Amino acid sequence: MKKYISLCCLFFLTFSIAQIISFEAEEGFVPGPILGQGHWTSNETPGGEYLPNQIITNEMASHGQQSLKLTYESDHPGQPTPIFGAYYHPQQPVELADGTSFSYDIFLDTLTPNSSVYIFGDVNQTEQMYHFYLMIDQSGNVVAMAVNDAGQPNWIDTQLDVVGRQWYNIRIEYQAGILHFFVDNSQVLTAMPVITSPIDEFRFTHDNFGGFAYIDNFQILSGNMNSVENQNPKYDVKIYPNPVKDFLQISLPEEFKPQKTKIRVYSAEGKILQEMNFDQRISTTHWPQGVYYLQLTDSAHEATVKLMKK
Predict the structure, then answer these.
(1) What is the pLDDT of residues 227-281, one digit of tens each?
(2) pLDDT of residue 308
(3) How far apart are CA 8 and CA 290, in angstroms?
């Protein structure tokens, strides 16, 4: 008799992939201003208008066909701080718990002294305070705003420079009160966050001096096993066998439409290993032994299940 492992049964084991945003049509994004798409907003000008050039585009992407483009607003001057861009508000605040991480891919225009500065960071809006910021300046220097060795919030140099015209993956992990900053899987800095309150806003911003950046594959992976946004126990995804050796059988719940469902395979560290259209039977022969997570999404539903490869 086959033994199915349902997502309901795996509720207490699930790794908690809170949100993955690749700005694709399947996720409801369309080319044009980011304002109002999903849970994203942009800046309002003093005249009550919103910035038109912070957009979803199909010009370039690290995953799929579309990405978020942050670019120069010619109707506005350069800003004293990086405030132009796109702001994401998750449906549920994200707890800064052990195992929580944030990652994204970034492609910068050719860097010059007149390039914009680009920042990624997160905020607790109630406290009007940030947890950290990661900045890439005009020369490609990567610095982080966090608590330094003296116990004060300050910009800390990672001693790493990036160059324009290539993709980088940026990842920030939180463990035991410490933020670990990675660029292309190489750790470049450790520091303490400024606050540890729940996160209800993420920011991708620039200071509007020139050039552009593409953002893609934005991931929020939460270590909080009790977060409502991180779990979907109502969707009874069944997989067999688990542990798996050569082939995995997947049974979708009735809410999912197989022809519109995508599968993403993640490593235990949250790295995307494979993307495919839904198939009831997938080969795992080439997978090394270890822990994996399957994320299944269609236009309206999402579920994640953990499995072992033996």
Answers:
(1) 333 344 557 788 999 889 999 999 998 889 899 899 989 887 667 788 899 999 9
(2) 87
(3) 22
DSSP states of the chain? ----EETTTTTTT---EEEEE---GGGT--SEE-TTSTTEEEPBPTTS-B-SSSEEESS--SSSS-EEEEE--TTS---SS--EEEEE--SSPBP--TT-EEEEEEEEPPP-TTPPPEEEEEEETTTTEEEEEEEE-TT-EEEEEEE-TTSSEEEEEEEEE--SSSEEEEEEEEETTEEEEEETTEEEEEEB-S--SPB-EEEEEE-SSS-EEEEEEEEEE---TT-GGG--TTS--EEESSSBSSEEEEE--TTS-GGG-EEEEEETTS-EEEEEE--SEEE-TTPPSEEEEEEEE-SS-EEEEEEEE-
pLDDT of 94-123, one tens digit each? 989 888 889 999 999 999 999 999 999 999
Instruction: Tell me the whole-structure pTM to 2 decimals.
Output: 0.73
